[in-house]
Write a structure and sequence with these properties.
With about 50 residues, the protein is an all-alpha fold. The chain contains 2 helices and no strands.
């Protein structure tokens, strides 16, 4: 297999994975979970 073709395939796979992570991170159904996780350090500091 030619290195150029392999490099192109890996670039496309990496881009698809990156876009998948972005979709997962910014999806509306994960918003409440991420907000709870963001407040976790403050809750532990206040003893909650």
């Amino acid at each position: 297999m030619n290195f150029t073709i392999l490099s192109s395939v890996m670039t496309v796979i990496s881009m698809i994975v990156f876009i998948g992570i972005l979709v997962w991170a910014f999806s509306a159904k994960n918003k409440t979970r991420f907000e709870e996780l963001a407040a976790l350090p403050q809750d532990e500091e206040n003893g909650k």
